[in-house]
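tool_call: predict_structure(chain=1)
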Amino acid sequence: MRPKSKKTRHGFDLLVKFLSSIAALIGIIFLVWITFEVAARGVKALDWNFFVAPPTPPGTEGGGVANAILGTLAMLILASLIGVPTGIFAGVYLAEFGDNRFGEAVRFASKVMMGIPSIIVGLFVYALLVLSTGHFSGFAGALALAIIMLPIIARTTEDMLALVPNALRESALALGSPGWK
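tool_result:
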């Protein structure tokens, strides 16, 4: 259905914009209402003790999430210790020496790893580590997180090093800096 005249098209356009704005406003109102409702009811249950107390046995009141917070921080630190240096090394290699077949293979593998969903990485690490050892571990979670971090860090490092002008690289070489630095 196409309106014939310019005036009719303009009126139809204004009507659709108005109805779209009303629909968006209704959605935003409900989202804000739900957010405030959850925050108002949930803030009563939160206190400092909730964040620093260990969990209590099931069926008892109280308890906290201190173990979960510390475990998450430990996994994040371990994943960063594994993933960040490896990703930076891969990115530097790709930016400086990656113009060969091996560099193209590493770049391709990095792009493929970026597209792997995190649940698949988790299942891979679960099958590799958890099933073979017979128990869960923070290291398995950290390894999964490091695998997820690795291609992002490598790609970001490569892109940032590609922004360095060649004149600056040549200047560093002329001043005596080795090529690998």
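agent: The longest helix spans residues 6-42. Proceeding to next step.
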